[in-house]
Amino acid sequence: MQTKRIFTAFAFTMLTIFLLLIVASRTSEAATADNSVNIDAEITVPVQTTPDRGVMPNGKDEEPDRTLTKPDVDTSSWEYILAGPSNNIGSYTPPYVTAIENTAQYFDERAISALEEFLNAARSAGYSPYIMTAYRSYSTQNYIYNGRASQIAWPDPPTEEDYAEAAQSVAPPGESDHQTGLGVDITDRYYNTMDATQMDQGFLTWMRENCAQYGFILRYPSDKSSITGSDEPWHFRYVGVEAAEFIMENNICLEQFLELYD
């Protein structure tokens, strides 16, 4: 009996260590003041989840500049799906996802050619883009989220408070931009821990300045973190060329862009 208890305790400890390694290496933790984060952070500001995308993570309703001449686009189209702390998309799954080049990462099939053009343009400019994280399913996000809550609560079962704390560093299922199949983390090489200060700043600048012509935006710019809840200079999101050029030229985020059409 004693041997069985020891074995059970050992197995449980190894499982916990395994979950910790997964979260540490494949999820982006909340952005800190020095921009040191892990791969999958979608939330860095305490939020109150509501179904109203106009309520921002800081609790303020920040209206976009409605004097802007907005593009003639249909924001109900698939390119504009919004996932975040103020807009949970539930178990949404893109209709088709396909592998990105020769990697084990997947992306919405309807935008894969635009992503490949973006990556090839970066290579032509002398950079070596690396796909850290692309599409992530609801079930995978749920697994990571529950794993984080379990680590916080260990050795007890996670409580509501533990899940709330977990949501400060890992996006709850339905709130990750990666689940849309249109969000992708692109770096200059593989990183165990995502730290913008260690990345090639020229590469990040080139990606930000050229993404729009391929239909991508910087999803989480630093100066919009009070709205999006995140600061990730490596996370790009496909919205189509017309919308992307408008968003980047006017220095607004996806939330503000969609607000213009409400």
Describe the secondary structure blueprint for this structure.
Blueprint lengths: L1 H25 L70 E3 L6 E3 L3 H13 L5 E4 L4 H16 L6 H7 L16 E5 L13 H10 L5 E5 L4 H4 L3 E7 L2 H9 L4 H6 L3
Antiparallel strand pairs: 1-2, 3-4, 4-6, 5-6
CATH top level assignment: Alpha Beta
Termini separation comes to 64 Å
Gyration radius over CA: 19 Å
Average predicted confidence as pLDDT: 83
Major pleated sheet: 4 strands, antiparallel
Low-confidence parts, pLDDT < 50 over ≥5 residues? 1-12, 17-61
The multimeric state of the shown protein is single chain
**Any guess at the CATH architecture?**
2-Layer Sandwich
Structural class: alpha+beta
Number of helices: 8
The count of β-strands is: 6
Task: Identify the strand order in the major beta sheet.
Answer: 3-4-6-5
CATH topology (fold) name: Muramoyl-pentapeptide Carboxypeptidase, domain 2
Total number of domains: 1
Query: Which of globular, elongated, flat, extended, rod-shaped describes the shape?
Result: globular
**How much β-strand is present in the residues?**
5-15%
How would you describe this protein?
The chain has eight helices and six strands; from the N terminus they run H-E-E-H-E-H-H-E-H-E-H-E-H-H. It is α+β, with helices and mostly antiparallel strands and about 260 residues long. The chain has one domain (about 1-260): Muramoyl-pentapeptide Carboxypeptidase, domain 2 (2-Layer Sandwich), CATH 3.30.1380. The strands form two sheets. The chain has a four-stranded antiparallel β-sheet with strand order 3-4-6-5. Strands 1-2 form a two-stranded antiparallel sheet. The longest helix is centred in the first third of the chain and has 25 residues, at about 1-25. About 40% of the residues are buried. The model is unreliable at about 1-10 and about 15-60 (pLDDT under 50).
